[in-house]
Write a structure and sequence with these properties.
Serine Threonine Protein Phosphatase 5, Tetratricopeptide repeat, two-stranded antiparallel ribbon, globular, GLE1-like_sf, translocation, protein transport, cytoplasm
């Protein structure tokens, strides 16, 4: 907890125009006319990279990263706006949006639009692609439910649970994609299902019932036998939650005791 506060204070001080020590030198955004804009851009980009890198391999890391970003977003809304822009470009499913291939668009360009990394005409492997998308969605799902505990709680969360509710509703209005849709829904519900359940009650459970009865069969219809892994996990998760009438707290959530460390 104390380490996370140090990280937050350093970022906040930098964005507030105060001199900050880094790698043996003192820097300040006031040293250049575009200093603040540059730092906002690079910082937002860095948070997205944490999502597609660190969170994709260490799922629990979504929460400490998200709580810092949430607090920075509250004090410096520009960072949040640019973060969303980077996130939507890297992971269109965070909108949620499935880009359609337009006439005249090359296959390589279209794959980039879908979020794939393409280097020298080689497209990244599906497993790696799914892992990156998973990390970014989990980070996004953590952000919408977390607030920096030392901030001013008078105002609303800068990008709170209502955005998560909207994401879920829009997602369920899209025609599902094999592989991708089941994974995204499972990641999202695992991370912020508990918070959505507490906030939206009966409406949330109606949505879970809809996923089980109507949406999962639609995912099954577009899923081949070799792509069933994530879909099976989603089915089991939804079924267990409906039976228990409870969504478990996500693994790695920051408890009050964490902030005393």
């Amino acid at each position: 907890g104390s380490k996370l506060r140090e990280v937050f204070d350093k970022i906040n001080n930098l964005l507030s125009g105060k001199p900050v020590q880094t790698e043996g030198q003192t820097v300040s955004v006031t040293q250049h006319p575009q200093g603040l804009e540059f730092v906002c851009y690079k910082l937002a980009e860095k948070f997205v990279k944490h999502g597609e890198g660190e969170v994709s391999f260490h799922r629990d890391s979504a929460f400490p990263i998200a709580v810092v970003l949430s607090g920075i977003w509250e004090l410096h809304p520009r960072v949040g706006d640019i973060f969303l822009a980077h996130l939507h470009r890297k992971c269109p499913y965070s909108v949620p949006f499935y880009p359609a291939r337009k006439e005249g668009t090359s296959m390589e360009e279209y794959q980039r639009m879908l979020g794939y990394e393409v280097h020298d005409s080689k497209v990244e492997e599906q497993d790696h692609f799914l892992k990156r998308m998973s990390g970014m969605i989990r980070l996004y799902a953590a952000i919408i439910q977390l607030r920096w505990p030392y901030g001013n709680k008078q105002g609303a969360h800068p990008h709170g649970l209502s955005y998560g509710w909207r994401w879920l509703a829009q997602m369920l209005n899209l025609e599902p994609l094999a592989d991708v849709t089941a994974m995204l829904l499972l990641d999202f519900l695992e991370v912020c299902g508990n918070a959505l359940m507490k906030q939206y009650g009966i409406q949330f459970w109606k949505t879970m019932f809809f996923i089980q009865k109507s949406y999962i069969p639609r995912i099954e219809a577009v899923t081949s036998s070799g792509q069933m892994g994530c879909l099976s996990r989603l089915k089991n998760f939804v079924q267990k939650c409906l039976q228990a009438e409870e969504i478990p707290l996500p693994k790695g959530i920051l408890t009050p005791s964490f902030w005393r460390t």
